[in-house]
Amino acid sequence: MSSLSFxxxxxxxxxxxxxxxxxxxxxETPAFMPVxxxxxxxxxxxxxxxxxxxxxxxxxxxxxMLRPGDERIARLGGLHHFMxxxxxxxxxxxxxxxxxxxxxxKISEDGVNFxxxxxxxxxxxxxxxxxxxxxxxxxxxxxxxxxCTPFPAEKDEVARSMELSMRWAKRxxxxxxxxxxxALFGIVQGGVHGDLRRVSIDMLTxxxxxxxxxxxxxxxxxxxxxxxxxxATTPHxxxxxxxxxMGVGKPSDLVGAVARGIDMFDCVMPTRSGRNAxxxxxxxxxNLRNAKFGDDPDPIDPSCPCLACKNYSQAYLHHLFRAGExxxxxxxxxxxxxxxxxxxxxxRGHIEQGSFAQFAQKFMG
Length: 365
Description:
Layout: E1 5-12, E2 15-22, E3 25-29, E4 31-34, H1 46-51, E5 57-60, H2 61-66, H3 70-75, H4 79-83, E6 89-92, H5 95-100, E7 105-107, E8 112-115, E9 122-125, H6 127-137, E10 141-143, H7 155-176, E11 183-188, H8 194-207, E12 211-214, H9 223-233, E13 243-245, H10 251-259, E14 264-267, H11 269-275, E15 278-279, E16 286-287, H12 307-311, H13 314-323, H14 327-353, H15 356-364
């Protein structure tokens, strides 16, 4: 019996409104997970992250394994206590780093040998070791260890990568067992090839997971190809389990993916952009370093309840970034996360009301 369950509350032409139940609270879906790679959402206090509307955050197996170490976190009471976030946490498995740290790793059937990007030390990740680390961390949603297939790649290379990930998924499932407070998600791979995605789904559902992620997208293929790949993928995924699109994305990516049946997302974009003077609005992104904001007395969005919009002008934010003051990234990160959570809440409302298609058409247009 899994510690996680999914309740489908409404469906509007494939866009889903749901609720994921965990032992640390419910996650309203569609949901966006702020990224706290190293046990912190950069520039934000946990209380502030929660205040934006986030039900769940993401942390990273590979980075926490290296520093401060998963065993140390376990001794100190687990990841929730360590970082003072007492709602659900999802940890990715290290599979993304198999791709992103390509120059520092060597893949075999057993797993992946890495050269630490911190000090050059040799480290090894396998399905079994990834499960051990994630159990030490105590995350609520644990991800199977996989290889995030790079793009572009020849189809036979994508097939080999997917098949390796499926063998690793089986090993992850066996090593994971049945912890009381944790649930393991499988990850669908197969690049931009719908037939390979369907094979991957069949293999994962044969193993059986309480949730399924779509991996290997947002790696350079572009929005149009990403969305067409989702169209070929999500109709074959179990209806009664949450669907998580990994590492996505821009606001329009989120709306397009929700239209195609995705429930959960994570991405560094709102926080990374916030540190680099880019703010998100319904009219598109803005760059607060631009000179035109230097005399602008208005907030980014008068209707936004975030700290930045309630209390500060765009002229002040412009000044902070031009002066290199750390308050600039703090305030803009707060705004961006609030914007993303507002977007998710609006999508949930439109799905409930049966008006999502009109909302998505207007937003994407």
